[in-house]
Amino acid sequence: MQGKRILLIVTGGIAAYKTLEVIRRVRERGAAVRCILTKSGAQFVTPLSLAALSEDRVYDDLFSLTDEHEMGHINLSRQADVLLVAPASADMLAKMAAGLAGDLATTALLATDKPVLVAPAMNVRMWEHPATQANIQILKARGVGFIGPNAGDMACGEHGMGRMAEPAEIVDALEAFFGPVVKRLSGRRAIVTSGPTHEAIDPVRYIANRSSGKQGHAIAKALADMGCETTLVTGPTHQPDPMGCRVVRIESARDMLAACEAALPADIAVCAAAVADWRTADAAEGKIKKQPGAAPPALKMIENPDILAALSAAGNKRPALVVGFAAETSEVVANATAKRQRKGCDWIVANDVSPASGTFSGDSNTVHLITEAGAEHWPTLSKTDVADRLAALIAARFEAAE
Ligand code: C5P
After folding, report:
1. Element (H, E) at 295
2. Alpha-carbon distance 278 to 259, whole Å?
3. pLDDT digit string, tens, across residues 144-203
4. Per residue, what are the HEC states of 194-232?
5. Ligand 1: which of 232, 260, 307 to mutate, judged by most atoms within 8 Å of the beta carbon?
6. R_g (Cα) of the chain, nearest Å
7. Which residue of 251, 260, 295, 344 sits 20 to 30 Å from the alpha carbon of 159, by its own alpha carbon?
8. How far is Cα 191 from Cα 216, in angstroms, rounded to an integer?
């Protein structure tokens, strides 16, 4: 979406906070965002937040003479490539369906000759109401694109349809809208591991780690975007499923290995998961009870299978390119270079995960790519950019071999 211009209309809804993340992510991908904030939208996010993230002024007053002189509502919508309403309240959908134009947002929507996408967000009963459903049909028939909503828990305490799509889904929909990127990996298959694993102590307790899954999920998406048939094998995370991937959810390292083996053959394997090195020797079948006065139970640990090493040694099923990760807290490049040898993989993406780096659960990553040719030091990038750059190098490697 490099160079594309998005006119973002923010209406009133608790989900408006997620829209801030959408602005950040689409700008990371090179798109420009200009915001219109409705009166009720301003009850949920401030013009200052939108202005800071979009690095542009925020338009919120239809009757401002300066705006009308410098940037009339017609121009505002004509200068964009697409209009995105997020969150789109039930009230806004009704106004759009009826063609009302009582404020800047609705005027821009009525005056535009550009495509319109909406990400609805509302209470389940409002979503299900026949009035809203009729408005949706009208808007769909006019070509308005709908992103979500999703089902789930709502801020009002109810459960059901009406949660706004996650920022990643909205960005995916915008990317799909802006058209296909060159599918440099079409015809290839990839397996990507992501997230932590959970190793049971008993049916209610487990051992885990702080991996968020952000980097692994971003890599799966970047490969899928390039046309690669991608299986994402993921431990428990809060990341939304990346569009275009087959997602296999697992809990333990042993399940992850089994899922990866089942996904073979593949041309590419990227092991970004933070797999637990050990599991308890015998997970208890029932909950371990705390006995008054008794000593705490001792956990006997045994080693988990190494998925990266197993895929690297998979004989004639070995993917042509196996990429591992090395999370290090010191001597990052030296340790990662040794790890590449030890695991038998082709490339290692090494990163510093010392607490000061903020890598775990953070949005950026400073990595070094270790290949047979040596170490490449990358600048600090967002995890999405790390993923895109890695996917581009993977594509180049296969193109060179053709
Ligand atoms: O040995 P270490 O855990 O530092 O190696 C990290 C790399 O190995 C990562 O690519 C990780 O996904 C992979 N790994 C694995 N299975 C394990 C442990 C690590 O695939 N049991």
Report:
1. none
2. 18
3. 999 999 988 877 778 889 999 999 999 999 998 987 657 899 999 999 999 999 999 999
4. ECECCEECCCCCEECCCCCCHHHHHHHHHHHHCCCEEEE
5. 307
6. 24
7. 251
8. 11
Task: Give the amino acid at 344.
Answer: G
Look-up: residue for tokens 């003479």?
65
Instruction: Report the alpha-carbon angle 335-378-257, nearest 5.
Output: 55
- Which atom of ligand 1 is closest in space to residue 276's alpha carbon? 21
User: What's the CA gap between 189 and 320, in Å, rounded?
Assistant: 10
Containing H/E element for 167? helix 167-177
Of 7, 46, 38, 12, nearest to 23 by C-alpha is 7
Taking the CA atoms of residue 250, residue 256, residue 260 and residue 261 in that order, the dihedral angle to the nearest 10 degrees is: -120
Contact 326, 332 (CB under 8 A): yes
Residue nearest to ligand 1 atom 5, measured at CA? 326
Q: How many helices (H) and strands (E) does the chain have?
A: 14, 22
Distance from residue 4's CA to the centre of ligand 1 (Å): 39
Determine the residue of 325, 329, 365, 368 to mutate for testing ligand 1's pocket, defined as the one with the most ligand atoms within 8 A of the Cβ atom: 325
Pocket of ligand 1 (CB under 6 A): 193, 253, 271, 273, 275, 277, 304, 306-308, 324-326, 339
Reference 231, options 282, 258, 281, 193; nearest CA is 193
Q: List, in sequence order, every residue forming a beta bridge with 352; answer none if it has no partner.
A: 328
Output the CA 306–ligand 1 centroid distance in Å: 6
pLDDT digits (tens, 9 = 90+) for 305-352: 999 999 999 999 999 999 999 988 889 999 999 999 999 999 999 988
Q: H or E stretch including 356?
A: none
Report the atom number in ligand 1 closest to the C-alpha of 327: 4
Q: Is residue 232 a contact partner of residue 217, using CB atoms and an 8 Å limit? A: yes
Q: Is the pTM of this model over 0.85?
A: no
Alpha helices in 227-296 (DSSP H): 253-263
- Residue 324: strand pairing partners: 271, 348
Output the residue whose Cα is nearest ligand 1's atom 21. Answer: 306
pLDDT in tens, 236-263: 999 878 878 999 999 999 999 999 999 9
- Domains (ranges, CATH) in the chain? 5-177 (3.40.50.1950), 189-401 (3.40.50.10300)
Check: CB of residue 235 under 8 Å from CB of residue 198.
yes
